[in-house]
Structure formats: C-alpha cells, structure tokens
Design brief:
The chain has 19 helices and 2 strands. With 593 residues, it is mostly helical. The radius of gyration is 34 Å and the shape is globular. Keywords: Membrane, Transmembrane, Transmembrane helix.
C-alpha cells in the first residue's frame, strides 16, 4: 500500500478505494462532534462561529488536493453547561434546532425548573396517577369487611367494563353500517338536499340498529339460559348495547331538530314505542316457548304443580331478559329526560356547550340533580304502599313489577347523567386551560372518588335503616311483617322502604362511575385514532379493529374473574367474609409452621 502511494503522482486523480483507505481517520474524527451536537448546543456569541463551522458541504465537493471536503471542527467550546466540562459543539440542523436544544440535560435526579410541560405529558401524568389511585382504592373496596360494599364494588367494576365494551361495539357497528350505506357525505353546515336525505337515512339506520340490539338481548339470554355466568354477562352487555344504540338514535334526532316541542313529541313517541316493543317481545317469547310470562306463568305453575327443579331455569332466563330490557330502556329514557331537563334550564344552544359555564349554571344543575335524588326515595315509598295491595308485586316478571322497577331506575339513572355533566362542567370551570380529553379524564377521576365516598356513607345509612326495621320486627314479637300490629307494620315498612331507596341511589352512583370512565376512554381512543395518520385515513377499520382487540383482551378476564364475584348475592359475600375470618388464623399458623 505504501509503495503504491509512493509510485502515484500528485496530479493523478485518487481512486475511490484509495480514498476510503486514506480518509477513515478524518471521517471518524468528524463523526464525534456530530454525535455530541444532540446533547449540547452553542450559547452566547460562539453560536455564530459554530454555525459558520457547521455550514453544510455540497455533496462531491473536493479541495485543491482532490480530497472530499468534511465539516471542520468548531473552534469555540461550550464551557460549563449543566456542570459538564468544555465540550465541542457542532450544529447539525438549522437555527431552530439550536433553540430547541438550548438547555442541556441535567444530572439524574436534578430538577430543571425551566422545563415546559406540554399537553401530552400532562395528560399522561394525570392518567398514571389516576390509575394508580383508582386501582388501590378498588383493592381496598373489594376487600372491605362489609358485604354490601364488596357487592357494590364488584358490580361497579363489572358495569364499567360492560359499558365500555358496549360503547366500543356499538360505535364500531354503527360506523360500519353508516359507511356501507352513506359513503359520501356533504360538508358540515351545508343545506343541500342530499345532506337532508342522508340525515333521514342515518336516522333509519340507527333505529334498525336499536331494534336489532333489542332482539339480540332476547336471543343471547335464551341461548345461554343454562350457563349462569354467560347469562349474567349477556344480560349486562346486551342491555348496555341496547341502551347506547337508543341514545345514539335520540341524539341524532336532537341534532337534526332544534325545536323543543318536537323533542317532547319524539320523547313521547319513543316511550310508547318502547312499551309496545317490550309487549311484542313478551308475546313472541310466550308463542315460541309457551307457559306465558309474569302472572300468567305464575298461575300456570300454581295450577299444574310443576316441580321446582323445572321452574328455576325457566324463571332465571326470563328474569334475565326482563332485567336486561328494563335496564337498557331505563338508561335510554333517563338520557332523554336529561336532555329535556337541561334544554329547559339552559336552552338547546347551551345544552351542548360543554365549556364556558358560570357558577350560576353549576348551581342550577346541582339543584336539578338533588331533585332526582329525592325522586327514587319517593317512588320507593309509593311502591311499598302499592305492593301491599297487589299480588303482582311478588312476581318479578309481571307488568306491574317491571313498570315500578323501571320508574325507580329511570329516576336514579337521570341523577347519574346529571352528575356526570355536573362534574364535567365543574372540572372545566375550575381548570379552564385543560383540553377536552383531559377534562373528561379528570372529571371521571373526581367523580369516582366522590362516588366511592358516597357509596360508603350511604351504605352506613342503609345498614342503619335495615337494623331499625329488624329491631322493630323483633320488638313486635314476630319474625315477619304480616303478623305485626298496624303501627309496627308502618314503622317497619318505612325503614325497609328507606333502605331500598338508598340501595337504588348507590346503584345509580355505580352507573355514573361507569359512564364517566367510558367517556374518558372513548376520548382517549378517539385521540389515538385522530393523531395517527394511517388510522385516521381508515377510521372505520381502525374503530372496528380497536373494538375487536379490546374485546378479545378484556372479555375473558371479565368473564372469569369479575363476573363470578359480581353476580354473587350479599349473603354469599357475607359467607365468604366469615370463611376468610375463620381461615385467616389457621392459614397464618400453617405459614409459620
């Protein structure tokens, strides 16, 4: 190699292989400042000289000797940045990069004090802290020594997961159906005839989806009638899918019409339609499976003397269908009531405005929420009075029992919807700089904490009312209410009715928690899709894949871990607590041995 260099003439053009052999050391020396330039930036007057030294060289440019030019090393040194020694700095980009990296990285464990937190970092921090707090609070609640608190905690987790999955599946199916039928839409705010036709077609599609979800509730509960765990999951999930399909239907109608009387007419028509749909489903079940339902089934069983072993599975799946229909229709109707109440208080223009509300608006919303808190209590006492005079109250699938149950659930659910809006408005009021997604997450965390405290306090009140009712029954000398005197019967009835009303309020708080976290997760998923260009271009496909992926990940754990504990009764939780207390000392002794 040296001999070949000696024989070569200075005027000869150097070959590429010879240049690669001769220039490896200068190239290595030139890479060192390039690597260090991402960590340190030029400061002060030396920035101009550094920029001059780092001026890019044209590709293929050579010096007088014919060698390729490389960026020269800077003559200025960045002295003493963040406690480091003087290190040469070379800018590898334009002046904007020097401004972005103006501050050097501090030592580990040191706070900069000048770092600006962006919206993404703030949202991530809130999510991490909120999830940690919520997870540990739930761990305390599911191990609470009171059986009712445990029961509410497991039901609240099951309801939250069911609502989340129901909204995901409903949005995926709705978007797919709308995209398949309405692939071209007019611009928002246009008044073209095609856009008006599309709105009517979208309304029809949403109505068909609601009827399909209602029919799916009956099919799933009938299919899994002999599998208690799957029956419970089908009842919860299908009921929530039906509810949110109906909510989408009414919301779409409210967006198309800004006249309040028309909304009232739509509310009344939908209410009568729900009643007719439930009676039609009941007629079909009677025609297909026989034996009737409600009082008709009870009279048939009493007259024929059917064995209890055959009666139990028939009642279970029929009751599951009735409960799923009642819950789905009640959530749907409570949402419509919430829209109408807020439209009367704030107007149709202010009802959809989620930000910019005053303290007076919060006070009005809080008063409306208190009115719906008292409604379940009044309905419970009224139902207790009617139950003593009606034989149908003893049959859970009778029309009377279902109507009274729906009225109580609607009042409690309306309070939940108003509470959800109240906490969102309050969070947006006190933290106006937060984005919409971060307000959803923060309000969900605050609502969860307040709901957990309220559940514990209300459970103490319900336990006290139950204890008073039992003491009054014992003092009267009878174990049941039917044998008491008139005065003792009234006092026991009031205590028992108050206890049931408080339990209904607790269930509504659990629903509010589920709805709040569903909105928070929906906002997070929407942000992920919109911020990813590939997913945003294929929004419908991304929505479907996310729904399927989340369902495949969450549903097995929900069915195997949460559902068995959520479907347990309060008595079963009491037995589990007693067994844990009895086996605790023995287990500790065995562990020590």
């Amino acid at each position: 190699w040296l001999k070949s260099i000696a024989r070569s003439k200075p005027t000869d053009a150097p070959s590429s292989a010879r240049l690669r052999r001769q220039m490896w050391l200068p190239r290595a020396a030139g890479l060192l400042p390039l690597l260090l330039s991402d960590a340190f930036a030029a400061t002060g007057a030396g920035r101009e000289e550094v920029a001059e030294a780092s001026r890019p060289v044209a590709v293929g440019q050579r010096d007088a000797a014919g060698l390729p030019l490389l960026p020269p090393l800077p003559r200025k040194l960045n002295a003493g940045v963040a406690g480091h020694a003087e290190v040469p700095v070379l800018l590898t980009s334009e002046a904007g990069q020097a401004e972005a990296h103006a501050g050097a990285a501090p030592e580990h464990g040191e706070a900069t004090g000048e770092h600006e937190v962006d919206e993404v970092a703030l949202t991530t921090s809130h999510l991490l802290i909120g999830f940690m707090v919520a997870n540990f609070v739930l761990l305390y609640l599911v191990r609470w020594p009171d059986a009712n608190i445990r029961n509410y905690a497991w039901k609240m987790m099951s309801s939250t997961i069911s609502i989340y999955l129901a909204v995901l599946l409903n949005n995926a199916i709705k978007d797919t159906a709308l995209y398949a039928v309405l692939r071209s839409r007019c611009d928002e705010g246009s008044t073209c005839a095609e856009d008006l036709v599309h709105q009517r077609i979208e309304l029809v599609i949403r109505f068909l989806l609601f009827v399909s979800a209602f029919a799916l509730t009956n099919l799933l509960c009938c299919r899994f009638s002999h599998h208690p765990r799957l029956l419970y999951a089908s009842q919860a999930l299908s009921g929530h899918v039906t509810a949110f399909a109906g909510i989408g239907l009414f919301r779409n109608f409210a967006e198309q019409s800004e006249d309040l009387p028309i909304l009232w007419v739509a509310f009344l028509l939908i209410t009568f339609g729900l009643v007719a749909l439930r009676f039609a489903a009941r007629f079909l079940r009677t025609s297909l499976f026989g034996q009737g339902e409600g009082l008709l089934l009870q009279r048939y069983l009493d007259m024929s003397g059917v064995l209890r072993l055959y009666q139990v599975p028939v009642e279970e799946w029929r009751e599951a269908i009735c409960e799923a229909e009642d819950e789905g229709c009640s959530i749907f109707m409570s949402y419509m009531i919430k829209i109408l109440v807020m439209a009367h208080i704030f107007g149709l223009e202010q009802e959809d405005l989620m930000h910019g509300h005053t303290t007076l608006d919060l006070q009005k919303l809080f008063v409306a929420q208190l009115c719906f808190v008292g409604a379940p209590i009044a309905l419970t006492f009224w139902r207790r009075r009617l139950d003593r005079e009606s034989y149908a109250a003893q049959v859970h699938t009778s029309a009377y029992a279902r109507i009274m149950s729906c009225l109580t659930i609607i009042a409690a659910m309306s309070m939940s919807w108003l509470a959800l809006t109240f906490f969102f408005w309050s969070t947006a009021r006190f933290f106006p700089s937060l984005s919409h997604e971060l307000v959803e997450i923060t309000s969900a965390a605050v609502l969860t904490g307040c709901a957990m405290v309220a559940i514990i306090m209300l459970d103490l009140c319900a336990d006290k009312a139950e204890q008073v009712a039992e003491e009054e029954a014992v003092q009267s000398g009878y174990s049941g209410i039917n044998g008491m005197n008139l005065e003792a019967r009234k006092e026991a009835s009031v205590s028992s009715g108050l206890e049931k009303a408080i339990r209904a309020l607790i269930d509504s708080f659990a629903l509010a928690v589920g709805l709040s976290w569903e909105k928070a997760f929906h906002a997070a998923l929407h942000t992920v899709i919109k911020s990813t260009p590939v997913m945003d271009r294929h929004y419908v496909i991304s929505q479907g894949l996310l729904a399927l992926g989340n369902s495949a990940l969450i549903m097995p754990a929900w069915l195997t871990i949460i559902v068995p504990l959520a479907q347990m009764s309060v008595h079963q939780h009491k037995v589990m607590i007693e067994l844990t207390r009895q086996q605790g000392p023995k287990a500790r002794e065995q562990g020590m041995q």
